[in-house]
DNA sequence: ACGCAGCTTGACAATGTTGTCAACGGCGGC
DNA sequence: GCCGCCGTTGACAACATTGTCAAGCTGCGT
């Protein structure tokens, strides 16, 4: 057990500083600094002496102090404000950001907002107080104007998933409207004329855009927009399941929808749950917006309009680092295409009357 | 468009410091510091003047400088080293850590290691160089002794998911062996005598423990351990799918396994893919270790031994904060129980010969 | 008038680091 | 013998902030 240390009795050894290393190596602090930062102009003997002292003392440079003093002031960390680190969309995006940042040896501070404006602001504030070099934000509040001060201070800012309001800045978005339009067109292609819309909170811009795409496609196909087939403000699996059940139960014969467009991940899953409970999963068509793991193992396999959260994260991070490298060009608005993935559930034809 | 600022032409205004605020408010820096930190002993007029200057200058305190000077030296940030931020286990754990940290107004630095020892060390180093107040680590390397220096320096450390080696420290783990044992017992309960084991990389301690549980249960049931029914080192969905196919195809009639225990998330999914491809999903029983989203929407619904990553994160974070609050007790090893969730796939009986 | 207590306030040092610059000793060129 | 140059080195100030402490003020009691 000698290799095990017991914290209760573990000797407390405060962190060594440059000063300690310098004292042990018998050189000035500046010389240690030079060795640590790999600057040249130090004789090999001194380098050795310093190296030895460093490892003997388990010296770890203090990056905060370093950043404070350095002219650039860079902390080599960026902040990432996302909807919910536990959901697959956010976490895939985060991971992609991490991969880009990692190449630049930059760390990631991350936080979830859960659709809470207060939290968005609190997180941004906490990040900037730590002087992150840049921010990636999936905005949730109705106004991002409060971020102007950060931009003016030179902290680059890239928005993802949703367009910021009250501030012109780089952003990377899915082409929500076009994706939703595609979905409805595909359903119409197999003959559906009564296509329901199940949507997220109507005030979320992405939900709005997807609804716009839905409406546009109906118009293009000359299909009527039946208010009874439109449900907004579904935000959880249970919400969606209940709404789906209501929609299909309440069908005055021949008037119920024969296909469903679910405008979001959790809504899609809720709809599937309901369809399975009603035994209708093979008779009502379904296309969901946003892919999800295992969609292709369900029966029927679930057709989706896939977003690409990794790509979104990658592109956003790369944009951010371009800005950090000095790019002062006009702010960009990058629209990522969606992919229509037909797996089965979207190709179910309407029942012949 | 007046509310839109264009970064290309946006005025650059460097961040205001305490000094700037003090100058504008006509007081000393110390007084500003007092106001910012809510200390009392400042007349209301001065407080007002300072507040005004702060908002006029968009002053943001510099927490790095603050931490540097403060006696505690706390940075109000913790580092979290996980397997892969994009996988559901890691991200649920991270989210739970975030929730606990959030209450204490502590931020999270996060990174993925991808089974790479180098990366584990690099991340820990990067975190400690930023003087995080504590670390939560899902260790991947074979020796965590290198962390002793950090512990001695007073940085609390909690391991999750896997036990550290070469270092005695707090850790929070799932009861892998018992969970795996349960799984095999449940399969034996419905009559299976040829139960295959599909395992992750054998050198991962959790995989080892799960295999131990599998072996133990076989022993307890008096079932033979058939090497042909044991496959190790599966780490991806594809690996697992191939292995499953091979296992079931290669069945000399009457010798193939009638049930499968899949020791990990991705392996379970791979096995399901293969079973579906072979049309055997309703005839070969399956229990997977670790729950996954939508397991209860598949057909058959997938039985699992569920871990509780959120709970793991929550408990680990709380332990960490206890240590930060000064608890110097002996290091704890917390075993979280698993839950057996029988949904259908695990209750399929063996085909009658 | 004086001393003293209590509150407010600011000067100064310190945190751990790096940028600036001058000093050092040795050397070749005048 | 002196100048200037070289590579190396360290003294010092600075970064943004907070802890310490003494000075300043008011009002009170004597």
UniProtKB/TrEMBL annotation, chains A, B:
GO terms for molecular function: DNA-binding transcription factor activity; transcription cis-regulatory region binding. Pfam families: LacI (PF00356), Peripla_BP_3 (PF13377). It comes from the Bacteria. The keyword rRNA-binding does not apply. Residues 16-70 form the HTH lacI-type domain. InterPro entries: HTH_LacI (IPR000843), LacI/GalR-like_sensor (IPR046335), Lambda_DNA-bd_dom_sf (IPR010982), Peripla_BP_I (IPR028082). SMART domains: HTH_LACI. Keywords: DNA-binding, Transcription, Transcription regulation. This is LacI family transcriptional regulator. It comes from Jiangella ureilytica.
């Amino acid at each position: 057990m000698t290799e095990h240390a017991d914290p209760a009795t573990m000797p407390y050894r405060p962190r060594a500083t440059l000063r300690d290393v310098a004292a042990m190596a018998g050189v000035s602090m500046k010389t240690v600094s030079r060795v640590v930062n790999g600057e040249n102009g130090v004789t090999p003997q001194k380098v050795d002496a310093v190296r030895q002292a460093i490892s003997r003392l388990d010296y770890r440079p203090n990056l905060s102090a370093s950043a404070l003093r350095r002219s650039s002031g860079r902390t080599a960390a960026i902040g990432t404000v996302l909807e919910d680190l536990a959901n697959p969309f956010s976490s895939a995006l985060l991971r992609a950001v991490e991969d880009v940042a990692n190449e630049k040896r930059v760390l990631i501070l991350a936080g979830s907002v859960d659709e809470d404006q207060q939290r968005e602001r609190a997180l941004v504030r906490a990040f900037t107080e730590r002087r992150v070099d840049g921010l990636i934000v999936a905005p949730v509040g109705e106004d991002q104007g409060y971020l102007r001060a950060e931009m003016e201070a030179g902290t680059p800012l890239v928005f993802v998933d949703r367009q910021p309001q009250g501030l012109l800045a780089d952003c990377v978005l899915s082409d929500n409207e076009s994706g939703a339009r595609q979905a409805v067109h595909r359903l119409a292609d197999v003959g559906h004329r009564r296509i329901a819309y199940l949507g997220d909170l109507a005030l979320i811009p992405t939900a709005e855009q997807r609804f716009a795409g839905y409406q546009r496609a109906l118009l293009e196909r000359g299909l009527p927009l039946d208010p009874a087939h439109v449900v907004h403000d579904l935000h959880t699996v249970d919400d969606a399941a209940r709404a789906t059940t209501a929609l299909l139960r309440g069908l005055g014969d021949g008037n119920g929808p024969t296909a469903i467009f679910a405008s979001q991940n959790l809504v899609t899953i809720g709809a599937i749950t309901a369809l399975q409970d009603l035994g209708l999963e093979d008779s009502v068509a379904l296309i969901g917006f946003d892919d999800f793991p295992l969609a292709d193992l369900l029966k029927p396999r679930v057709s989706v309009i896939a977003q690409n959260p990794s790509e979104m994260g990658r592109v956003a991070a790369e944009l951010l680092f371009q800005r950090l490298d000095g790019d002062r060009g006009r702010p960009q608005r990058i629209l990522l295409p969606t992919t229509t993935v037909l797996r089965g559930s979207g190709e179910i034809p309407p029942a012949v009357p």
